[in-house]
Amino acid sequence: HAKVGYRETICFYDAEIGAAVRKRRQLAEALRYALEHDELEVHYQVQMSLAAGEIHGYEALLRWTHPQFGPIPPSDFIPLAEENGLISSLGAWVLRRACMDAAEWESGYRVAVNVSAVQFMDSNLPRLVHEVLVETGLAPHRLELELTETALVKDKSRSLHVMRQIKALGVAMALDDFGSGYSSLETLRTFPFDKIKLDKAFVDGIQEDRQSMAIVRAVLALGKSLEIPVLAEGIETGDQMSILRAEGCDEGQGYLLGRPMPIGDLARHGRSTRADALQDGEKPGDAV
Ligand code: C2E
Ligand code: MG
Ligand code: MG
Ligand code: MG
């Protein structure tokens, strides 16, 4: 095989890293441009009660389609925005958009907005939330913020302070991706969450392995004793849905119940979802 000297190896990696850095910088520039030129969009994914099949609300999920690169997943551009400080304006934009949209829904459904760890700690989030609620006229109880544990671990007393201020506005707080990260029990003991979102990984494993099933049961029991409703994320099959329902899981979200979709498609989806729920003898609720 070809003999590659030490120097050449270094040069090779340098070039590669250089290209990756340039690509990231280019992407960051493009994201800033997208934010300023309205190239971002918010899609909505339904959250339902599993027992009654009623719609409770929608999670707002950010979508970015780059003119050349095509759709870029949030898992790529959110960390980028966190690194270069763009996350605060990005987060403010999503919050405003989602509250404006939800304020138009006659049904009174709730909207859940993701808040990044950096945004939670850096910006004056309680003030922003208050301003946006006043601006859009959305009733505070119709807004929920989703937060992962990463957001809370760095500075607990400050996190607790921020969280209490937000809750004092009447806005609910959900613990996102529960079970996937840090010391979850300590988080639940310390922070006054209104909902636990059980990470998709456990729902995926519910039929495959005893461990996942055992953990799902334990989390549901924990939710019951703490009197915090549990929402299962990433439900994709009818079997997963029936198991979770039988185990007494309060709410669910996932492709089976509805994909994230543009605001314009929500009304139609609301009607078909209600039609599905009617099999169980439900009374129809209001469409979006
Ligand atoms: P998340 O908050 O846990 O959102 C759930 C993710 O799971 C979404 O991915 C959703 O599209 C996806 N999902 C829902 N149901 C299913 C299912 O049945 N199967 C599968 N395979 N996936 C499902 P998405 O939209 O790509 O977002 C990924 C993550 O990016 C989110 O995870 C959240 O952490 C972050 N994110 C998205 N939008 C925002 C935002 O506006 N602000 C912030 N800070 N983060 C956001
Ligand atoms: Mg979320
Ligand atoms: Mg999640
Ligand atoms: Mg997630």
Automatic annotation (TrEMBL):
**Residue segments, region Disordered:** 270-288
- Ranges of residues in domain EAL: 24-274
Q: What domain of life?
A: Bacteria
The name under which this protein is listed is EAL domain-containing protein
Keyword Lyase found: no
Q: Does the keyword Cell wall biogenesis/degradation apply?
A: no
GO cellular component, as recorded = membrane
